[in-house]
Amino acid sequence: MTPPQARRPIVAANWKMNTGPADGSELARAVAAQDLPFAQVDVVLCPPSTGITSVAAAVRDSPIAIGAQHVYWETDGAFTGEISVPMLSGLAAYVIAGHSERRQLFGETDDDVRRKTLAILAGGLTPIVAVGESLDQRDAGQTLGVLRSQVTHVFELLTPEETAASVVAYEPVWAIGTGRNATPQQAQEAIGWIRDTVAEAQGSTTADQVRIQYGGSVSPENCEELLSREGVDGALVGGASLDAAKFATIVRAAAP
Ligand code: PGA
After folding, report:
1. Which residues contact 91 (CB under 8 A, 6 or more apart)?
2. How many angstroms separate the CA atoms of 92 and 69, rounded?
3. Which of 106, 214, 217 to mutate to test the pocket of ligand 1 (most atoms within 8 A of CB)?
4. Given 3, 7, 11, 21, which residue has the most CB atoms within 10 angstroms?
């Protein structure tokens, strides 16, 4: 039996609603100037929509990929304020779907996340599907159930090929922007549950190919411990990604 192909770690910077076109490009150039293990790790920058064009131009000569933080699932039309997958063509390779801030602050539902994920894949881009439990849910012992329901909702409809090409980010809501990261053990356990759930929907060969990141207060201080855990295929980084040197430390920690 041939062993499953090793999954390539992926570290993505989620800049959230920070940086415009000029300072975003400057930050992107500062990241590109760091000593990064591009041969071993996929590196993605997700600027706000208005910065995508300039940041993509700033890193054109580097292996850094661009991601969008949000899209609408329709391709065009009367949807004021939204951007679509075709609008990202030639600019972005990834799109985050289901980030807990979108779920909590903007009412994004599991159905919305499913529609977005399907649209992202149909447009030839890679979704980074974010899932995670709230503190109340964790305290009530509901983490496994919450993750199963969020993951199944998206992955039951995908083809095995689409599933294998997707990225999942396990982001416990209580760890995002709080400075309180999940312990490496909690992260590894939850990521194992997510992979088992994908396997139930799509089979274990396919599930073995899906890259699953951890996100939530990842920092230069805790990244080694979190990212060296078996099954943790990289990180989705918020706050620390706004500092090129800190982000680079996290990327280096993801290299096998
Ligand atoms: P944080 O954000 O690293 O600031 O906790 C992570 C995220 O929201 O993706």
Report:
1. 52, 53, 56, 66
2. 10
3. 217
4. 11
For ligand 1, atom 1, which residue shows the shortest CA distance?
238
pLDDT at 1 > cutoff 60: no
Mutation probe of ligand 1 site: the residue of 18, 44, 236 with most atoms within 8 A of C-beta: 236
Give the per-residue pLDDT at 6: 86
Between the CA of 2 and the centroid of ligand 1 the distance, in Å, is: 36
How high is the mean pLDDT of the chain?
96
Q: Which residue has the tokens 């760890």?
A: 175
Angle at 146 between CA 124 and CA 144, to 5 degrees: 105
What local confidence, expressed as pLDDT, does residue 95 receive? 98
Q: Are 246 and 220 in contact (CB under 8 A)?
A: yes
Residues 6+ apart with CB under 8 A from 64: 28, 31, 32, 43, 44, 45
The reported pTM is 0.97
pLDDT tens digits for range 175-196: 999 999 999 999 999 999 999 9
